[in-house]
Amino acid sequence: MKRNWFRLLVVLLGSATLLTLLGAFALACSYIYLVPSLPSLEVMRNVELQVPLRVYTRSGALIAQIGEQRRIPVTYDQIPELVKHAFIAAEDERFFEHHGIDYFGVVRAVLVDFISGDKTQGASTITMQAARNMFLNLDKTYRRKLQETFVTYRMEHEFTKQEIFGLYLNVIFFGQRAYGVAAAAEAFFGKTLDKLDVAEAATIAGVPKAPSRYNPIVDPELATQRRSYVLRRMRELGYIDAATAESANKEPMAARAHAPLYEVEAPYVAEMARLELRQRFGPTAESTGYKVYTTIDGRLQTSANRAVRIGLIEYDRRHGPGPQPRRRHLRGGGHARPRAARADPRGAERTRGTRSE
Q: In the chain, which stretches have pLDDT less than 50?
């Protein structure tokens, strides 16, 4: 009897060893096959993000941001602790402990998905998301997943955790053309990162999981539910206390679409700068982070804008509104719609069919 148990144990250990060796061999073969398609260390070290063209006054006041993607690059040290904690709680609570792949998270996700009967729990770490968004595509294939694993391994060995977290918070997509957490704060709340409160930080941290679902402008109800989850996780991890979480959870969803912030209004100057740079450097001038400093004096420009507005208001008060088309009265108390005016060759405007009957 003991001999049979011993043989069974030997068979099990041998099978496990063989499977491990086969898995390692398959992984090595996959790596050799995929190496040509992986970004080199030089490319990873010198990654260039799409940053909009920015136009400034001569004193450095922002006039306009021009580009397809809204992105405001920030360093790790410029990101408030509140925002960091919100993303750690929402996306990867063991980020500073694991080495790119959270095996406990994988096991948890498998168990949750098995119990729920649906793929409701993800296991991607912050490093894996950064690798996917910076160097790979979003195809849901085994090839891309293997590439993501290898790039994640490289990143964990070439970058510090702070560098990886900073890259992640600059490349992740939030919807509203906003890439990066600083652009998201501006697009959703019209604020800089240091002005966000707990509820707003939790709202933004909840978006990357599914930007099309949890966008607070597109679906405030789902975004509120996701915010509640993030606040709960922040409380469980000790980042905020219960009273703060409860208070933030009661706040109404205040997100709405905001245009890029600017300090001086001079859109025509910004357009002149854009056309000049596009002529010199081509279409990429609007996405490579150029900063244009003009000779515009912000104080004088603001005064000029105000003078023009006041002048137009005064002119309108003196002369009144422009000529209004006359209406002809119909039988029964109705009014006929005035016909469209046509331009007179001598510069006057002539209206047909407006004689009273």
A: 340-357
- Is residue 288 packed enough to be buried (19+ CB in 10 Å), middle (13-18) or exposed (0-12)? middle
Q: Whole-structure pTM over 0.90, yes or no?
A: no
Angle, vertex CA 184, rays to CA 178 and CA 189, nearest 5 = 130
Q: How many CB atoms lie within 10 A of CB 268?
A: 8
Instruction: Report all structural domains of the chain as residue ranges with CATH numbers, in order of start.
Output: 48-70+260-317 (no CATH), 71-250 (1.10.3810.10)
Which residue is it, tokens 């992740």?
Answer: 172
Cβ neighbours around 325 below 10 Å, total: 13
Buried b (16+ CB within 10 A) or exposed e, 79-118: beebbbbbbbbbbbeebeebebbbeebeeebeeeeeeeee
Residue-wise pLDDT tens digits, 182-192? 999 999 999 99
Residue with token string 């068979």? 11
